[in-house]
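Consider this record:
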Amino acid sequence: MRVSGKPVSPRPSRSKKLYRIIILAVGLPLIWAAGVWLFAINLQSIQDHITARQNPLSSEVVAIADDAGLNPHGKFLLAASRTQLNDRGEFNENCPIKEEQAYILGCYVFDDKRIYIFNVVDERVIGIKTVTTTHEMLHAAYDRLSSGEKSRVNKLLYEEKSKIDNQQILDIMKFYEETEPGQEFNELHSLLATEERILSPELEKYYEKYFIDRGKVVAVYEKYQKVFDELQSRIADLQNKMEAEEGSINTAMAQYETDLAAYNRDVDLFNSCADRAGCFTSMATFNSQYHRLIARGQDLDAQANQINAAIDQYNADVEELNALGVEAEKLNQSLNSHAEVAE
């Protein structure tokens, strides 16, 4: 075999080609795995966009979102959660939860990632729909946080919790700790945003992901909460007033009965003396004792009139308290999806 003078070995070229094949053979599964991982991360976002596009918000939910000061992303989460306003029967089917200590006004169903809101119609507290809808949207938002972001937000929520002096929020958190252990941060995430006016700058910055103006939903909360607070205050003030009235009436009646018994004894003595000749030493003595008894009788009449007036006022307060009780019951029933009342 005649050999030319140029290099004859093609091995480096073949080895390089083989090397590239090996790299590609190893690299393809890695690239595929990375693609699956990225797809998994974005799958929820993809599903949300498809769902939101296929399920536009109703005009009423849009109005609620505007009242709450939600930005486009907040509204997007409502659409992605197929947010519905339900009347009693439908709501109870979609949110089959019943609590003895509280009324369920909305729910975010984690398995279906759907939001259902009880359609409260009482104009005095109609803003509760706005706050409830926002509250549930924030559950949807929290559900979609990455583990790293959730840890960061939980830390901010924990730090904020130590500053809370809103007894309403503290009571609700205690309720959630008892009924939904492990969901405290999830609930706090919704409560702080919708019911606490002042938050740390870090939390405010975070909530800008969902709000144009978070103060709007807090204002709605404060407005309807004022209805409950004022009604409760009127009931408490009236109960305290009636308790004082009852004590005063009992004291006055006890004194009246004592005075009346003494008066009657003295009248009997006076009449007995008048029936006996010479019992009164003079007409002046007779007249003096007679007029004193007349004056005491008049004082007793005045006491009786005052007591009767106090009793009339107490009875009027009883009627007012009963009316407030009826008002409170109607208000409570309007928030109770299980109540059998006319819409």
Residues 215-274 form the longest helix (60 residues). The CA atoms of residues 98 and 318 lie 33 Å apart. The chain is about 70% helix and 5% strand.
